[in-house]
Amino acid sequence: MYVSLRDVAARAGVSFQTAGKVLNGRSGVVSASTRERILKAAADLGYVPNAMARGLVRQSSVTVGVVADDFADLAVSQFVLAAQRAAASRGHAALISSVHAGVDAATAVRKLLEYRVDGILVAAPTLEDDPVLGEVLRGRLPVVSFNRVHGGGIPTIGSDHAVTGTLAAEHLLGLGHRRIGTITGPQSRQVVGTRTRGFRAVLDAADVPLPDQRVVEADWTYEGGWSATHRLLDADPSVTAVFVHNDTMAVGVLKALHERGLDLPAECSVVGCDDLSFAGYLVPPLTTVRIPFQETGERAAQLLVDRIGGKAIPSRNLLPVELVVRESTSPPNR
């Protein structure tokens, strides 16, 4: 049972209005002895201020809202956790509203508005083409998004994913690979198109072909990566290297290559993308392009709190990516 402000006031022998003023930090409203009596009563009873009630009175909650779509996506979960910690370090709690089968974007945002959040972080990549999300966000509160928002007008933060593809291609070409394939996420996603364009541009510049049969679409999952690898090598067994659009799919890729009896990395090199925590513990340890999800979440929260405080922030914020070379890539021997 929560202790109320009236409980504290009764213990201290003052009105609840007086107790509220003291516990809200106002000075000069009572004598020093009365102030001490109120504070002692609150401590003895274990009183915790009602932040929601304060928010309703002030029309401000010192809380940021987070709209997220899939915590099974390790990129989203890393971003949200880092943002939550960064917001807390600057005095803001985080309230998360998840979009799923029973809750659409408009409902998720409305729930946050009901709690009088001061601003909203968006980590909902699957909703990047949802016009409703953009409509309910624009013009209401300060917003920063991890993904593109349909219709624009929302500051975004992330990385240049063309560079992600560029780094993977340059690494494989530098090792001497010329028969290269790629396993992508869903082609409807903007990040997939951007990574693929960066990857293809480097191969084109080196006169290395990337025919359609060497570009296989998957769904970001272990199973999707496994299935896509078999389809890729069924279509073109000569492939000696694969760029995989996330580390989760790369786990399935390694399994499929092992099932086909290929010696890794000598007979087939693999480059992932993300540098998730397990990447260095795979067999072989995965070469991958590191996406700074944690730093992105931290920076997103900082930008949002700045915007809540009235500061101008850039409309597009990019953090660098980097290639992490491990043991899943080597020069080809076939």
Give a brief rundown of this model.
With 334 residues, the chain is α/β, with parallel strands linked by helices. The chain is 43% helix and 15% strand.
Protein model, in words:
This protein is of the alpha/beta class and 334 residues long. It has 3 domains: 5-49, 434 Repressor (Amino-terminal Domain), CATH 1.10.260.40; 60-159 and 294-318, Rossmann fold (3-Layer(aba) Sandwich); 161-290, Response regulator (Rossmann fold, 3-Layer(aba) Sandwich), CATH 3.40.50.2300. It is 43% helix and 15% strand. The radius of gyration is 26 Å and the shape is elongated.
Helical content stands at 40-55%
CATH class categorisation of the largest domain: Alpha Beta
CATH superfamily of the largest domain, please? Response regulator
**What letter string, H or E per element, gives the SSE order?**
HHHHEHEHEHEEHEHEHEHEEHEE
Quaternary assembly: single chain
How confident overall, as mean pLDDT?
92
Question: How big is the Rg?
Answer: 26 Å
Content-based structural category: alpha/beta
How do the helices and strands line up, and which of them pair or pack?
Layout: H1 5-12, H2 16-23, H3 32-45, H4 51-58, E1 63-68, H5 74-89, E2 93-98, H6 105-114, E3 119-123, H7 131-137, E4 143-145, E5 156-158, H8 161-174, E6 180-184, H9 190-205, E7 215-217, H10 222-235, E8 241-244, H11 247-259, E9 269-274, E10 287-290, H12 293-308, E11 316-318, E12 322-324
Helix pairs in contact: 1-2, 1-3, 5-12, 6-7, 8-9, 10-11
Protein name: LacI family transcriptional regulator
Pfam families: LacI (PF00356), Peripla_BP_3 (PF13377)
Domain HTH lacI-type: 3-58
